[in-house]
Amino acid sequence: MKHPEQDRLLSGLLAGEALEDCRRASLEAGLALIRRRRRVRRVRRWCVAALLPLALGAGIFWSRPGRPGAKPVLIVQSRAPAVSRQAAGGGSVQIIDDEQLFALFPGRPLALVGQPGHQRLIFLDQAGREGSDE
Q: Kind and range of the H or E element at 80?
């Protein structure tokens, strides 16, 4: 149901310049908000575009295994005596010490890395051989 009296009052209040001023202020506020959001989006895009190459460069720099000019250091700590153990299959496994292990690979740069008893043998010349077809 329409109330003609309310319509007349509303049209009287919002008539003329007051209605135009309200519309203009509302439109300007909306446009300012849209401009601000667009400016924030543009700044975010530029920041991402600027930081992406920096993050990629930092990732490459920090993921390298060694720094240029750094030489591996060989530290031999454990001197395990030669011991023979009987394997489950009936064969024997001979445990050798560090010096005997290094003697198996004469002329090659080697390193033992890790805690004593849980060390791994590293061939330091492997990086140079990966690119060649030997």
A: none
